[in-house]
What we know:
Layout: E1 4-10, E2 14-20, E3 27-30, H1 35-45, E4 51-53, H2 59-62, H3 65-72, E5 75-79, E6 91-93, E7 98-101, E8 104-110, E9 119-123, E10 128-132, E11 135-136, E12 139-140, H4 148-159, E13 166-169, H5 174-184, H6 189-203, E14 211-212, H7 213-219, H8 228-233, H9 241-254
Parallel strand pairs: 3-4, 4-5, 5-6, 10-13
Antiparallel strand pairs: 1-2, 2-3, 7-8, 8-9, 9-10, 11-12, 13-14
The protein binds zinc ion.
Amino acid sequence: xxxxxxxxxxxxxxxxxxxxxxxxxxxxxxxxxxxxxxxxxxxxxxxxxxxxxxxxxxxxxxxxxxxxxxxxxxxxxxxxxxxxxxxxxxxxxxxxxxxxxxxxxxxxxxxxxxxxxxxxxxxxxxxxxxxxxxxxxxxxxxxxxxxxxxxxxxxxxxxxxxxxxxxxxxxxxxxxxxxxxxxxxxxxxxxxxxxxxxxxxxxxxxxxxxxxxxxxxxxxxxxxxxxxxxxxxxxxxxxxxxxxxxxxxxxxxxx
Length: 255
Ligand SMILES: [Zn+2]
């Protein structure tokens, strides 16, 4: 049977998400921003927490780990390069390694940039990818530890996933990201359509994610740094994509 997910808000604007395998009952929390909302989601679904899959070491992604592990005895999987900064780690993983949640099979994709050891978890059979703070809907993470080169390479790896892949990211930042994106890519009809759709979702009090890789790569300026028209629009015609990416990221930081 296909994987099931449950998405909910944690802290101020973090997303919590549970990934459930109906065949075995195994359930993973992707990151653990805060224990209480994760417990509420487990209670509402009746699912039993077996794993926590950590994307990176930031406190707003790891603060719930100790409490959840004490209660559920779940396994904690974390990026090898950041394991020293994450509590209660049982297994460390690198690029290309496989992570199972019951019978669901995920692959580790290293996506440094926001932090140096950041990883994403891709479940190809279920068309799901959990990207933490590397990629957001119409945005990307700040370069707190890595370089533009690193982040641009990481985003290109995610962009190469199949179009139907659903992206679950770490934060609800979509409305602010769209405001910025329209300031540099105003003539993009796909972005304009997304802006209208997101406005409606927000009015309905609904989540703006997941989004698909196929939709995102047409609308997210951080995935479009190698599109000539966008470089022209920001006055960087013919510049290398990584330079265009760095300029867009810099403008967003100052926006
Ligand atoms: Zn972060």
